[in-house]
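Pilot study result, target chain (125 residues):
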Amino acid sequence: MAVWRSARTYDPARGSGASWLYAVARNAITDRLRRTPEPAAELVEQPSAEPGPPDEAEASWAAWRVHRALEVLPDHERPLIELAYWGGLSQSEIAERLRATARTVKTRTRSALARLADALEEELG
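Predicted structure:
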């Protein structure tokens, strides 16, 4: 129906019939979508699976404690943990980036994780 109603607007000097037909169809679809009301959202009867304020506060507190515990690491161990856990790098990628052997990275990572565990255990009592 939209094509029939818009037929008088077609001007071959402005472009091809296919372009005009496409524009008429696009406009008809857009007009129809504007007139169609959005369906009402259904109420969910189950509690949300997303974390609530207490969960977010606990996660924030845990992140703060971990960052604080990172401060106790020596300068040669801290970058390993940061690259692995925040950078998402593998041990071989860390070794390449820091120009160290894979064995050195593994040893320092193990040592850093042990220090972090001790620091967090002391803080948590």
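One observation from the pilot: The radius of gyration is 31 Å. A full batch analysis is planned for the follow-on phase.
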